Amino acid sequence: MDTITEPTRQIPVADEVDLCVVGGSCTGLFAAVSAARLGARVAIVESNGFFGGSATASLVNVWHSQFDTTGQQRIIAGLTLETVDRLDRRQAVHFFHPANETRYTVLNTEELKIELDQLALDAGIRPFLHAHFAAPVVEDGKLTAVIFEDKTGRRAIRASHFIDATGDGDLISRAGLPCYKPDHLQPPTTSAIIRGLGDIKQRHPDFDLTRVAFDPAYPQALERGFLWTAEVPGSAADTMVAGTRMFGTDSSDADQLTAAEIEGRRQVRALCDILRENFLPEGSVPLVGLPTKIGLRESRHARCLHQLTEEELLHGHRFPDGIANGTYRVDVHHMDKPGITFRYLDGREEYSVPGRPAELGRWLEEGAETATFYQIPYSSLVPQQSTNLLVAGRLVDADQAAYGAVRVMVTCNQTGEAAGTAAYLALDAGIGVADVDPQKLRTTMTAAGSLIV
Prior knowledge:
By secondary structure, the protein is an alpha+beta fold. It folds into 2 domains: about 240 residues, FAD/NAD(P)-binding domain (3-Layer(bba) Sandwich), CATH 3.50.50; about 100 residues, no CATH class. Helix content is about 25%, strand content about 25%. Strands 1, 2, 6, 7, 8, 9 and 22 form a 7-stranded mixed beta sheet that branches. Strands 12-13-11-14 form a 4-stranded antiparallel beta sheet, covered by helices on one side. The longest helix is centred in the middle third of the chain and has 25 residues. The relative contact order is 0.17.
């Protein structure tokens, strides 16, 4: 490969803080807020012009259950609950509790953007938006600063501690800490806001968007996918639709990510053309919103002190350093075949492919004791060989099936709160992140409003 030699240059330091968070998803922001509320000086670097990650940039507007599978015990609170309560005061959320399903919350993600701004400002965080992480600065084997590019130019932030909330492990991989990629990466999805589905259903009572999207009778039909929808609070005519798939995409590779962004938009248009040509009045334009960024499911994982396993998750193993709880089912979007495999805490298993009857089975025999929620341990957020760098969100160390459950936002949010709290405790005690006392971490999170059970 041809190369260009870049001249040596002096990088101005934009800020010196206790903690620098790279990645401003809800996970990253919640990490920053958690540390700042404890008294740390915090900066956060985000490539978009707003916070929220998948929820805002990618239009994924569903936060899954904050309760166990019985629906009786709350297992998630903290900044997730605080944010939902803030949005509820603005009539920007809807709550659902369907029969035989766990409850969930649907968000107006435009309102969420503004609420997250306020969270950051109230906590006194130094935000760097439209800022692209470029490189780590490692001195004597320890991360001491991050370099980023923004409209001002190439700048740096010095910090005592760092959190990688980039999703793709940009910071840990460039800092030389161990990470890995599974053999089968779950494919990304481009969501969209589509108008008029309710009107179609009134005119065509048997209309089913999933069936239509993958029906080979339509030349534009999507292939090998899975589709789900959610309403947009405050806009009765609009629906968030997630039905596209870009198989074989490694989102940590820039060229593959570029190709996936373009292909995802093409697939959205193909679906809209089916609606325009077959179900909507002439002249209708169903597409009203596209994401700022494709919705990513998986790329790099940090190699941490503990890898969460499917067995631990499905059996609800309790960890002495448990810092996050969840109930979302194991949900593996296959790369090598159509459809999704679901495994539920109650022992059921389902392989679902659009247009086919679901294949039902069990991973656990009938009558066996089942868990009502699962946990993530703090040790799954601590990269091996790390002294002052933690990971949060999609970077959690988990095997393929366990990751298929814990990758959803309500779980990732909690890992952000845990990482931010742990970074503060390590800073305050002058110790490495691996040496943080799990009980003190859990007690501190509880005092801040998290549910540690």
